[in-house]
Design brief:
With 194 residues, the chain is of the alpha+beta class. It has helices spanning 2-10, 34-86, 89-111, 117-135, and strands at 23-25, 31-33, 138-141, 153-159, 170-175, 177-180, 183-186, 188-193. β6 and β7 (183-186) form a beta hairpin.
């Protein structure tokens, strides 16, 4: 028995294996240490975090781009509608002197007592012309008897008011003013009572 004890004592001491150095086979059959596996896990976790950040950035960019495009679409649609409303503005402004001439012709015809086909024809053309202007958004600015408004009227002359209630008001209209879709395209030229 003593021999057995001596043998045991004589045996070299075996060190406990270092867990970091313990090798195991991975899925591909390659041996790797636990330290390497832990390092791979942290590397994978870092890559996942990086990918998540990139996904969030891309989502944010996508949402911003979508909102920007939507704003662009709305803005161009609004501009197109405005362009369609005012595209004919220069043509309609050029027609306004013709309207003035028609008004004077109608006033002259009204002073003639006799009925004629020419008078009826001119009135018919005038009414069709007025309908055409209404369809295109042109409206007359009502000025006679109204308070003077610099946004709608242009003062030509000031005269003594014929009555007390006409002071500061438009006594007479020299030239009619017109709106095009609620935008003044020509101011009314008026005579103001003071």
């Amino acid at each position: 028995m003593t021999e057995d004890k001596d043998q045991v004592k004589e045996l070299p001491e075996i060190e406990a294996p270092d867990l970091d150095e313990t090798c195991e086979e991975n899925a591909s059959g390659k041996k790797e240490t636990r330290r390497e596996r832990a390092h791979k896990k942290t590397k994978t976790e870092e890559q996942l975090e990086k990918a998540d950040k990139e996904i969030l950035e891309l989502k944010d960019k996508h949402i911003r781009l979508q909102a920007e495009f939507d704003n662009y679409r709305k803005r161009t649609l609004k501009e197109r509608m405005e362009l369609l409303k005012t595209a004919s503005e220069s043509v309609l402004i050029s027609i306004l002197p013709v309207i003035d001439d028609f008004d004077r012709a109608i006033q002259t015809l009204d002073s003639v007592d006799e009925e004629s086909h020419i008078k009826d024809g001119i009135k018919l053309i005038y009414s069709k012309f007025q309908d055409f202007l209404k369809q295109n958004g042109v409206k007359e600015i009502v000025a006679k008897g109204q308070d003077f408004d610099t946004d709608l009227h242009e003062a030509i002359v000031k005269i003594p008011a014929p009555s007390e209630e006409l002071k500061g008001k438009n006594v007479d209209v020299v030239q009619k003013g017109y709106y095009l879709n609620d935008k003044v395209i020509r101011f009314s030229k008026v005579v103001i009572g003071e």
